Structures are given as structure tokens and as C-alpha cells.
Amino acid sequence: MDATISLPKTDISNEKSSPFNAEPEEGLSFSSVTLRKLPHLGDYLPASDLPSRPNPLERNQYFHPTEGFYVSPSDVILRQIVYDLSGKFSDTSHLAYTRAGPRRQIFFDTAMVRAAIVTCGGLCPGLNTVIRELVVGLWELYGVREIYGVIAGYRGFYSSEPVQLTLKMVDGWHKRGGTALETSRGGFDLHKIVDGIQQRGFNQVYIIGGDGTMRGAVKIVEEVRRRKLNISVTGIPKTVDNDVGIIDRSFGFQTAVEMAQQAINAAHVEAESAVNGIGLVKLMGRSTGHIALHATLSSCDVDCCLIPENDFFLEGPGGLFKFLERRLRENGHAVVVVAEGAGQDIIPRTEAQREDRDESGNPAFLDVGGWLKVELKRWWARDHPGELIAVKYIDPTYMIRAVPANATDNLYCTLLAHSAIHGVMAGYTGFVPGPINGSYAYIPLEEVARARNEVNTRNHKWAWVRSVTNQPDFVQT
Fold this sequence. Notes:
By secondary structure, this protein is an alpha/beta fold. It contains 14 helices and 17 strands. It is elongated. The strands form four sheets. Strands 1, 2, 4, 5, 16 and 17 form a six-stranded mixed beta sheet that branches. The protein is 32% helix and 17% strand. Residues 9-25 have low confidence and may be disordered. The longest helix has 20 residues, at 253-272. The chain has helices spanning 127-142, 156-159, 167-170, 190-199, 211-226, 253-272, 290-299, 320-331, 351-355, 368-383, 397-401, 407-425, 445-450, 460-469, and strands at 3-6, 32-35, 53-54, 76-78, 94-99, 105-106, 114-119, 146-150, 163-164, 204-209, 232-237, 277-283, 304-306, 333-339, 390-394, 431-436, 439-444. The record marks 212 as: Important for substrate specificity.
């Protein structure tokens, strides 16, 4: 149950009246904060089974905790930090999450910890960094020596022996793409997984994966609780598409945007070097267009950005063909970026294709890039017979997924891993660490598994895309 905490009223008033200041006559007051309850092992285990002990960081030769180093139970992170100073709020309750970081008291005997780390789903830049930093954090900060990697995703809990991980083994993993633990989709058998965790004596489980993996982790937490096991489970969200909700961003996303520039630059060169050249780049983004959006804004060479959140059409006034025709007439070339989930509802499908699913149970997507390439050539041959056109299609998906994380994502992965360790040691379970408005928090796993981070096509960022590309809004009249 969430807790509502009453706070002393804080008055935020205008410092100075001027024509440039918003002028609420009265100050803005905060009266209460609703703190999301974070699951804890103490919710279902008796206190006798969960003794607290001082954090071993107190004895760590590299740390000298000072006043304010440890996070207190009253430290929270506000979900929303932008408010209307007119004071007209639709909700007087301000949602908050528990702040991430080391606690003065922990609930594990670190000499008895057996930690398991698993990667599930597709590849993403930074996976190996997260694994490495989990090992380094557990080993160096808390003195844990029993750390194991589970091979090949969820199925590895019951189908293969885990690999013991050491500092020496993981030393250079952050410089490698992919995952050294291997990964797979599917293989989720709840009882076999929890049986495997229990039989191998794991009492800390670190699950790295996307939204489907997080939904599986919620079920694992529930089953562990049903069996009343002293096992803490945390999820570290991995999705290169940046479609996990609540947190500011997912790890690997910034690397993906940076790598996408190479594909866009190549498409631009190809288009510019041809007669009536069109460079077409398909980027990752099944249900959200964040990579396509940010890559478009970063490039400044893109003429049209197509994303799943914004429907588009090909023919007629305001359609893609008319827009590209004008661009080719004005500039002699054009670059189109399309997210893989865009246009799926207008691509012709057979009945079998409608029913097709991937290994994770998601609807199988058709290749929007290949389809667009064919349609562009067909349109040009029909409306401009005898005129040259060159459509150069680039799909860098696997090149982007497989690269090592860049410096920004490496730092992010380190902070995520260490935040996860601190939370688990404090006895929390069923949570996700992540930044909210730049500060790291612990979010209930179930809430993250439900939340989606879609592009809001009515906000400023999408307006910036429209202003950079001058593309149509694709609203049919």
C-alpha cells in the first residue's frame, strides 16, 4: 500500500514582478507526497529470519562514509518536477519513489550471498558493462565471492550449469558488444526457474532484459514470495528502443542513436550522389520511435521521420509521395528515416502473417523498409515514366545492437548496477533501479513492467522534428 506523507507547506512565490514573470498572486504549496511502496523481504519473512547488520562499506578500505553518504528511508525522488505555477492542479498528491543508494543497515550476510546474473531477450549496447559492474560491485563493495552467470536467458536456470564469475574473468567485458553470458528469447517456465534458483542456493537474482523479461521477473517475485523464500530479485531494464516507462531512459539507447548517425550519413551521401536519390534508413523501434526521433534531430540531414506513434499514408495530398516529389524537385535528393514499427497497419498481410508471433510472443513485424523501397520505386515509375530514381535502403539494426556501449552508456550501466546491488542488500525485492529526473530511484518492478514510454507527438520534441524536416503531419482531410 502506498504511503501518503504530509509535508510542511513550502511557499514558492515570485521573487520579482515583471512583464516576463508568470504571476500567480499566491504562492505554490506542496502539502503531501504519495510514496510508492517498495516490496521488501520483511513483508513476508519473520524478523528472526531477516536480521539487520551494519553495511560493510563502513569497513571498506576504499570508502570513508561521511554524513549524508547513506540514504535514509525519508529520501524520495519526485516523479513529476514540472508544475503549473498558476496553482491549478488536477491532482494534489505528488507521486514519489524511494531514493536509490547504500543503506546504513543491510539484511544479507555477505559471506553467505550467492548471486545469479542473467541476460534475456535481444542484444543491446551495455549488457556486458552491467554484468561486469554487478560483479565488481558485489565483489569490491560488499565482499561477495559467490557470483554466477546464468547462461542463455531464463531457460538457463533449469537447462544448464551456471558459470562462476570473478573479477579477472569480467575485467575487459565492458569493451565488448553483445553478452558474454549468451541470451535467448522465450524459455520462461516459472516453476522450473524458481526451482532452479532454489536448488542452486541463489539468494540474490539480477535479471537484465526488456519489458517481456520484466513481466517474467514479476511472476518470479510472486512465486518466491508464495514459497516464502529469502531471495531478493531485481530487474535491470534493457531495451535499446527506450520504450520502458517511468525511468528517464534505458541503457544502450544513447549508443544506438550515436551509431544510427553512421547509417544516416551513408544514406545521405548515397542520395546526394545519385539522380533523384532517396536514402532510406530503417532503425529499431517496434512500438516507439525514440531512436528514429533522436537520430533525426541529431543528424540534421533527414527529410522525413516515420514512427509508430504517428500514422502516415503514401498517396494523395499531404502524403509521403507528394512530399518527397517536392523535395526531389527542390533539392535533387531526400533522406527518409523509418522506425521498424511504423506503417505496420498499411502493409498488406496474408492471414498467416497476421497470426505470426516471434519467440517472445510479440506480433511478427513485416519489413517496413523493404516495403517502402518497393512502393517508392513503383510510384516513381508510374508517375514519372522514363525518369531516373535511386532508392538506397540501409538497415543497420544488427550493427547497432552489437556494438559496445559508448562512454555515456558505460557510466549509466555502472550506476544502474551499483544501485541494484545497494537495493538488494537493503532487503528490497521486486524493484527496478533507474533515473527519474536525473536522480536514481527504486521503482516497483510490477509498475515498470506495465509502463510504456511512447513518443508524445503533441509535445515540443516532436514539434522540433517537424520544424527540422518540414515534413507533413499526415492528417488526411
